[in-house]
Amino acid sequence: MDGGSNGEEPTSWDELYSINLMPSELFLKFRKGMQGLRVGVNLEFYNVPYNEFQAKLVLKPLAHDRRWKFIYEPVQQDVRILSKKIPVTKFLNLQVGIGHNFHMHATGWKWKLTTCFGGDGISRFQNKTSVGLFPGVDLRFGWRADYVLPEITGGVGTGEPLFNMKTGQLHASLDRVEAILTHSEAGDIKRSEDLLVCPSLT
Fold it and tell me: What is the pTM of this model?
């Protein structure tokens, strides 16, 4: 994603920016609150890089400060318990999980630091945007943008041009579309999701 060097510009606008609106992940989620827990069934379809289907049973506390999440994947025979994302800094989170695979008879744990921003000259911004169609039905869109900011340089007596400009780049994509169906009982605690999120262990 180098936007050109020594004053050379990319050969086409396609190298400067691209926007992909074809999601690679489609999720259908069913949720119901009962006895202090939110029970969810996720049907997840992936079409990139290959077609794949996953089904998950997810249990979370209904409390606002829920600290854990239980996930069972019947096809892969995986069971996992994940902690909530623990803020380390404003844009850096730590998540810890332990799991067991019944096929392999193996138990292990892992941790992951996640952030919404990247490095190495390429920055990444990830976001999830939720839209409530009507009570009990929500759409959530997960998208990302990889970008390189424009850069203007110059010099006198250094052998460099007096004025040199490197064009920035933007590559955005709509990665995930989720349809969420929620059945809420009277008195259930409804928690609004954070709009700015980082990738999780799931």
Answer: 0.62
